[in-house]
Each structure stands twice: as structure tokens, then as C-alpha cells.
Amino acid sequence: MIEAALVFAFGCYGLGLLANLWRITRGPDVADRILALDTMVINLIAILILYGIWHGTAVYYEAAMLVAMVGFVSTVAYCRFVLRGDIIE
Amino acid sequence: MDILAELVIALFLVVSGIFGLVGSFGMIKLRETMQRLHAPTKATTLGVGGVLIASMLYFVVVKGSFSFHELLITLFLFLTAPITANFIAKTFLQAHARESDLPSTERSHGWALFDDAPSEKPDA
Known about the structure:
The complex is a heterodimer of chains A (89) and B (124).
Chain A: H1 2-26, H2 30-55, H3 60-84
Chain B: H1 3-29, H2 33-36, H3 38-63, H4 69-96
């Protein structure tokens, strides 16, 4: 039962990644693209955790934590660059 | 394995998958940027929270080991989601809103987007 639920969740998040990719290519505004990239990072965290459950190892938490931190910092840096033309003033 | 625990874990996985899909589908479906800001910051964050709860339950029930790592990730995501949403909204406003369009802040200093930061000393 857990295997079927895992496959379902993998499918959902994979479709979500495709939707975000569509928004990155089409997004009329820079803000849309940053938002889509941020959502991609969140979906990627979910997929990493699911992969960890699939293999039954706890190794992927650290990877997910790192991806979460890098994703947040990169989103803020990208927004600040667009806003101020500089990341650290 | 206990069938009830398995059922609960599967339920969490399915519900979180649906939330994640809804959040990302909102990126396609909603029409304007400020509307699109709603979908990922709320639904997707909740979906990831569900996945992390499912993972925590799975490792408690199946492996018999409890860990706080998932809680850390959940806490981090719940803390950072509003900040990124605020920054993205600012980015959008800077490109599309003029200062005259925005309502007054009714404070001594205006919108952070257009005004400098308030000086360190408060106005006596």
C-alpha cells in the first residue's frame, strides 16, 4: 500500500515540476520565474524525502535540508539582485 | 507491520501529493502574478509538510528510529516561505506599481520599496 502511495506522490510532484517548468519558460515577468524556481526547489525537497522513504535510508534528510537552505538563499539573492541591482550592499 | 500505521502513512502521502500538485497546478491556472503567488507558498508548503510527517511516521513504525530532521526541514520551510513570498511580491511591485498607486502607509515613513530605511533615531 505504501508503495502505491509513494508512486502516486512521485507522479504528483513530477507533474508539479513540469508545471513549474512551463511557468519558467512562459512567465511574462521576472517575479513569475523566480516564484516558479522557488516552487521547483520545494517540490524537489519533497521528491528527495520520498526517495529516502522508497529506499528506506535516512541519508536524504541532509540532502533535503541543504537543498532547502540553498533554495531559500538563492531565491532571496535573485530577488535582491532584481530589486537593488546588488546582492550585498 | 501494523496495517493501521501503513494506512495512515499512505493517507499522508496521497494527501500531500494532491496538495503539491494543486500548488504547482496553480502556477498554470491562475492568471496574474500576484494571484500566482498564493498557490505555491501555501499549498506546496503544506504538501511538503505532509510528506515529511509521512516520512517521520514511516521511520518510527518500520525502522523503529525517531529523528527530528524532518521537523527541522518543516520548520525551516514554514519560516522561509513568507519571506520569499514577500521578496517576490516586492520584485513584482517594483516593476509594475507606481508610488502614487499604492495606499498611504499612515506612518512617518513610506513603503520600503520606494523610501529609504527609517533613520536609526526615532523622530523625537
